[in-house]
């Protein structure tokens, strides 16, 4: 009846569900198991694109002798269904055309951070969609052209952030205390606000020339967005006449150390008009914030390993290996714009793990799971403190920290919510329609967009399927921002919510890939077919 299966890894739910269907397990040969154990150790040390299971996870061997006996009887038979934590385990077996396998080859085109970063740029060739509307801009620091593009982006974002901070300060400054300087006034000319501060008061504001330089950078950026420089060379740092090291230091002082800027009336009007024009051109302006924080990530590691947030250009380049990167490093590190204005719940940041299933690449066939779960940070969100406990929601990171003292009692103790609890919260705060009208449609579009750009790169195989876990964070407007896509998403029952949902998604996956083959009208659980070419 072709009901022999092999399971590699801690998947007791899959094993139990298949046995309940009358399937018999063929256990992996000892040599294959030893080889896989060695590969797991090597991958743990260097990191790979899959979200590996926790090392301490174990699974119970079935004590029922009948299953051991049946396994012994089929030890020389090829399994017809293979579920493994990673593709390498399957290489121990000589695959036949009709064997069903839970992996595709070459999925690193979208399941590694550098692969996703590189391939999403091609999305406009596949669809009339701008990846900047759902994927925070990202650069591979090992590629020289992308590294330079990041440096220019960092400077442009610093200039916009400076103008935002200056306008915010202008709104909070009493009218009588404003300076009425002329645009372009040189440093040292009437740069102290009225009334004169005492010697014990705050430091004098920074030079108005800093605002002029920020306006210059923004004008040039706006011109490049409008293709005004399409026939000319892009503006170089030397042609702008700006001392970038000094400019970025001053921007940092404004954003993070409270240094003051005083705008002339003309500068204030120019800043508002220029920022408004940039808002119309930059879909990520709303989530950019005004601190110019970026997140640096190893290109092919999972579970938050090696990730750091920083607001300093020199720290980004240092974390990624210095100012020059050999070709062997190309694509190994990525830097991505941090979402500075996320949706927070009770003052705490969270992200969401969203599953989806691909059952064919030609034609591309995608199933979206209607259940998902949230992962909370253990400390309150703050842009003035970039500690991982406040910003990185990975369970593997947050379990290293204790919850904050005085944490809002409405937050879950195990730092996990279901998407249903999120919907109840949104309804409570007057945003009941956000989940079905903004969040879910945005996540579906992002998933399909990412898969379409990688479709020609992935190894398609008719008898394969694969379950993936996409991580999203939401902006203050509930717009989803795709962070990464994980192969082999963890099924570890780390909480009551994940214990229930992980079992549910495994059960429904088998409904799609086994039951539906024989009965196309069978129930598909919480899976929804969202795309089929």
UniProtKB/TrEMBL annotation:
Recorded GO MF terms: ATP binding; protein-glycine ligase activity, initiating
Predominant localisation class: cytoplasm
Gene3D superfamilies tied to this protein: ATP-grasp fold, B domain (3.30.470.20)
Acidic residues compositional bias, start-end: 50-59
A GO CC term attached to the entry: microtubule cytoskeleton
Compositionally biased spans, kind Basic and acidic residues: 29-49
Protein name, UniProt field: TTLL3 monoglycylase
Protein's organism: Steatornis caripensis (Oilbird)
Protein encoded by which gene: Ttll3
């Amino acid at each position: 009846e072709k009901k022999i299966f092999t399971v590699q890894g801690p998947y007791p739910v899959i094993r139990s569900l298949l046995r309940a269907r009358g399937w018999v397990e063929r256990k992996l040969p000892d040599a294959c198991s030893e080889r896989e154990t060695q590969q797991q150790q090597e991958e743990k040390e260097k990191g790979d694109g899959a979200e590996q299971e926790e090392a301490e996870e174990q699974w119970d061997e079935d004590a029922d002798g009948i299953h051991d006996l049946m396994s012994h009887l089929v030890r020389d038979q090829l399994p017809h269904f293979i579920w493994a934590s990673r593709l390498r385990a399957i290489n121990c077996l000589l695959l036949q055309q009709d064997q069903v396998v839970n992996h595709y080859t070459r999925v690193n085109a979208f399941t590694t951070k550098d692969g996703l970063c590189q391939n999403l740029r091609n999305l406009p060739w596949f669809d009339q969609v701008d990846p900047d509307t759902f994927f925070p801009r990202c650069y591979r620091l090992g590629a020289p052209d992308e590294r330079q593009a990041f440096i220019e982006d960092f400077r442009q974002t610093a200039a916009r952030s400076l103008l935002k901070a200056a306008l915010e300060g202008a709104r909070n400054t009493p009218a009588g205390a404003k300076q009425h300087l002329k645009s372009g006034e040189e440093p040292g000319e009437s740069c102290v606000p009225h009334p004169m501060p005492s010697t014990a008061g705050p430091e004098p504001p920074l030079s108005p020339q800093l605002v002029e330089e920020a306006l210059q950078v923004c004008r040039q950026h706006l011109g490049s967005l409008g293709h005004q420089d399409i026939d000319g060379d892009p503006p170089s740092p030397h042609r702008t006449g700006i001392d970038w090291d000094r400019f970025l230091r001053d921007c940092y002082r404004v954003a993070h150390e409270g240094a003051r800027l005083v705008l002339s009336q003309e500068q204030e009007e120019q800043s508002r008009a220029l920022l408004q024009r940039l808002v119309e051109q930059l879909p990520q302006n709303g989530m950019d914030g005004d601190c110019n924080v970026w997140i640096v990530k190893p290109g092919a590691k999972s579970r938050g390993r090696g990730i750091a947030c920083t607001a300093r250009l020199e720290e980004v380049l240092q974390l990624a290996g210095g100012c020059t990167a050999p070709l062997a490093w190309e694509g190994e590190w990525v830097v991505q714009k941090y979402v500075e204005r996320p949706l927070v719940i009770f003052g705490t940041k969270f992200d969401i793990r969203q599953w989806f299933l691909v059952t064919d690449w030609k034609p591309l066939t995608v199933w979206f799971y209607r259940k998902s779960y949230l992962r909370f940070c253990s400390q309150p969100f703050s842009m003035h403190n970039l500690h991982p406990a406040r910003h990185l929601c990975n369970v593997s990171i947050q379990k290293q920290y204790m919850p904050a003292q005085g944490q809002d009692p409405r937050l879950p103790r195990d730092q996990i919510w279901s998407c249903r609890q999120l919907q109840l919260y949104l309804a409570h705060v007057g945003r009941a329609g956000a989940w079905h009208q903004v969040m879910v449609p945005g996540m579906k579009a992002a998933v399909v967009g990412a898969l379409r750009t990688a479709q020609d790169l992935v190894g398609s195989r008719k008898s394969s399927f694969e379950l993936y876990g996409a991580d999203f964070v939401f902006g203050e407007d509930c717009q989803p921002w795709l962070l990464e896509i994980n192969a082999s998403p963890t099924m570890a029952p780390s909480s009551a919510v994940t214990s229930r949902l992980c079992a549910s998604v495994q059960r429904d996956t088998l409904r799609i890939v086994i039951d539906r083959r024989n009965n196309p009208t069978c129930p598909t659980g919480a899976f929804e077919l969202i795309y089929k070419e």
